[in-house]
Fold this sequence. Notes:
By secondary structure, this protein is α/β, with parallel strands linked by helices.
Amino acid sequence: MRLVVTGGAGDLGSRVVRGLAGRGHEVVSASRRTGVDLATGRGLDAVLEGTDAVVHCADDTGAGDAVTVYGTRRVADAAATRGIHLVHVSIVGIDDHPLPYYRRKLRAEQGILAAGGASTILRATQFHSLAAYFARALTKGPLTFTIGDMAFQPVDTDAVAARLVELALGRRPDAPTRARDLAGPDVLSLPELATLVRAHRGASAPRVVHLPAVGATMHAFARGRTVPPPGTADLAGRPFVEWLAEQPAVLTGR
Length: 254
Ligand SMILES: NC(=O)c1ccc[n+]([C@@H]2O[C@H](COP(=O)([O-])OP(=O)(O)OC[C@H]3O[C@@H](n4cnc5c(N)ncnc54)[C@H](OP(=O)(O)O)[C@@H]3O)[C@@H](O)[C@H]2O)c1
């Protein structure tokens, strides 16, 4: 098969590229560094020529609607017109979530449904690296700040990539489809995550400060909306602690 991976040089996309290539398929990465700009559509038609499936991993969280919403719609329309199976990665818990990025991810999904082609949407929870970032961002010195029942069920990025590979190589659906949501094996509260992340660099457990939730977005996180309800998600990949053990002592990035 010939497959295109948008954002094929990104954290998730590069793993999808390796997974597909490792199974002997022809894989083409599509992003600005290869001449494809989803904010404008430049290069998209050409790269999709003769393609069986496209795995859409490109995104730019800092570009507003340009890539997340309109770029996704461009990919969805171009795939639908050509009968190409679109496999899209989204996020667990974005229905009615007030966080602006999650609202854009929901609109991206709606654009795919409106395009009407053969598509599969996979919603995944936060990757381990992002959960660790949240824990670091909410820790100041010996204090970790949390709100209500803020918790995550983070997933190994490799497990998400593997599922996307399976979906792209699997049966092409006749219409827009949702795969079962994907999450990691453990639910961890923000204080638990912060304790693990601090222990990883040899620091003691933090003192936890509970803050009141102010505003709709904080209320959504306080209610643990990022954790899939029991039984609604497939569980896959290494637990957070195993992933963390393989990271350098000083964590960086998201
Ligand atoms: N991180 C998480 O916890 C998480 C959880 C669930 C779902 N997801 C989803 O997973 C996806 C991938 O996330 P990631 O962390 O792997 O992203 P990433 O590492 O930031 O990679 C994004 C890729 O998008 C490409 N890109 C950016 N702007 C573009 C444009 N205008 N046109 C074409 N390509 C563009 C970039 O390549 P160039 O610079 O070459 O353009 C880059 O390779 C996102 O859709 C995200 O919502 C993430």
